[in-house]
Design goal:
By secondary structure, the chain is an alpha/beta fold. The chain is built from three helices and nine strands, in the order αββαββββαβββ. It has one domain: Beta Polymerase, domain 2. A hairpin with a 4-residue loop joins β8 and β9.
Length: about 200
């Protein structure tokens, strides 16, 4: 018979003990908080334990919290089809510090970890091929960080004279930029320019 979320929570808190830092059930989901260095041990247990059988890795993603000392969360989503339960595991990691790769536990983690590296700059120690997966190899920065500029750092275009793609620093002409810091629900109050006869144009 399938466990309820609260039964699974109690069981995992008891068996994983010090590997976890806490847990909660909210909005119908079970979330476990764990030490980053324990993530491989935790996922092996969740996959292999006869009362868990979380054999499907759904996703690995990152979360950026730039005001926090441990800036990033790495979030793992698992599914137990046997128990019909999903679990989320969150670990915190400082910028520049590495989380152990879980590719040996779930081979599907390969591209997920590469995406988290590409988008956030989160490092995964022991990953077999940690390189960019969504952006170009020469791309500068990590687009899903909250401090990444909306316009990016470089732009690319095809140059007819050179007959190749060229990369250039982003340059935005100030006169064509319109900074509107008002709430979109309030709307901006633009003043119509006056033409030579004094009428709005």
């Amino acid at each position: 018979m399938s466990k309820s979320l609260s039964d699974m929570q109690d069981y995992l808190l008891e068996t994983l003990d010090t590997a976890l830092t806490g847990s909660e059930i909210s909005f119908g989901d079970l979330t476990l908080y764990a030490h980053a260095e324990q993530i491989v041990k935790i996922l092996i247990f969740l996959r292999d334990d006869s009362q868990c059988r979380f054999e499907t890795l759904i996703d690995i993603c990152g979360v950026d919290n730039p005001g926090r000392q441990k800036r990033f969360d790495v979030v793992y989503h698992l599914l137990s089809m046997r128990e019909n339960i999903r679990v989320r595991i969150k670990v915190k990691v400082e910028e520049g510090m590495a989380v152990p790769s879980v590719v040996d536990v779930y081979p599907a983690a390969n591209w997920n970890e590469r995406e988290a590296f590409d988008m956030y700059g989160i490092l995964f120690s022991g990953h077999p091929d940690l390189r960019r997966i969504l952006t170009d190899y020469g791309f500068e920065g990590h687009p899903l960080r909250k401090d990444f500029p909306l316009s990016g750092h470089v732009q690319c275009r095809y140059d007819e004279e050179q007959r190749r793609v060229v990369y250039e620093p982003v340059s935005l002409t100030q006169e064509f930029r319109n900074f509107d810091n008002l709430s979109p629900w309030e709307g901006a109050k633009y003043v119509a320019e006056q033409d030579a006869d004094g009428e709005g144009g």
